[in-house]
Amino acid sequence: MKRILFIALISALVVSCAKVPVTKRKQLKLLPESKLINMSQTAYMEFLASAKVLPASDARAKRVTKVGNQIKEAAMAYLGKHNQTKRIEGFHWLFTTVDDPTVNAWCMPGGLVVVYTGILELAETDDELATIMGHEIAHAIARHGNERMSQGLGVQVALGVLQGTTSEDKQQLLYYAGVGSQLGMLKFSRTHETESDKIGLVYMKMAGYNPGKAVVFWEKMAADGASPPEILSTHPSDERRIKDIKDFIPKIDDYIN
């Protein structure tokens, strides 16, 4: 009986093994992406309602929107070239700048991006900002939020998420979309972070930005002291991240072609 119930639960979900763009890593997704996108839109708007959102006329917001759209267009071109446009079905891209000193940025399923003014102070050039935008856009296209929830919640809880959008569901979505961290998810999340760095570098170059400036940006982050020790973070250590980026930059053209 338990086996039948388990199979029924799996059948009620969308079980999908797919390959992530650029890295070709196989991933398991239990939740329909359309469901997560709908939940994301609700949670995103609720977040913005209580945040200090900069008006579209603000120079900082204009800069984030400009770079974000350029990276998005490059990403769409890449997906079109590699027959992976289904990855962005249902996306409604939004690039929002929030007046907050926190050194952070994040992206929810469906292409909903938030950039804090705290991190903009470190990203002095558009190449450095493109590093951030490429990384966050990569999270959405790689469907890391879906994968994190699938791995972290399990079948029964995931099925519950499908049946409603309670405040608890929304908090879970924010959590697994990257707005938060958990020691139990560290190894898995660091894989996502490194993968997003690589995908973002490809999009950066296609958009006409200099991927080498990603090293400059992450060196600034390291000097700023914004990152906790790797064992206590969902992100790779600054040293590891910079080394991985330096190693990947000479290979970017191989992934574009």
Descriptive notes:
The chain starts with a helix and ends with a helix. The longest helix is centred in the first third of the chain and has 23 residues, at 59-81. A hairpin with a 6-residue loop joins β1 and β2 (26-29). The model is unreliable at 1-15 and 180-188 (pLDDT under 50). It has 257 residues and is mainly alpha-helical. It has helices at 2-12, 33-49, 59-81, 117-120, 126-141, 144-163, 167-176, 186-206, 213-224, 238-248, 252-256, and strands at 16-19, 26-29, 94-98, 105-108, 112-116.
> Rg from C-alpha positions?
18 Å
Measured as a percent range, the helix fraction is: 55-70%
Order of helix and strand elements from N to C terminus: HEEHHEEEHHHHHHHH
Number of helices: 11
Outline the secondary-structure elements.
Blueprint: H1 2-12, E1 16-19, E2 26-29, H2 33-49, H3 59-81, E3 94-98, E4 105-108, E5 112-116, H4 117-120, H5 126-141, H6 144-163, H7 167-176, H8 186-206, H9 213-224, H10 238-248, H11 252-256
Parallel strand pairs: 3-5
Antiparallel strand pairs: 1-2, 4-5
What tags apply to this protein structure?
mainly alpha, two-stranded antiparallel sheet, 11 helices, 58% helix, 5 strands
Task: Summarize the entry for a quick read.
With 257 residues, the protein is mainly alpha-helical. It is built from eleven helices and five strands; from the N terminus they run αββααβββαααααααα.
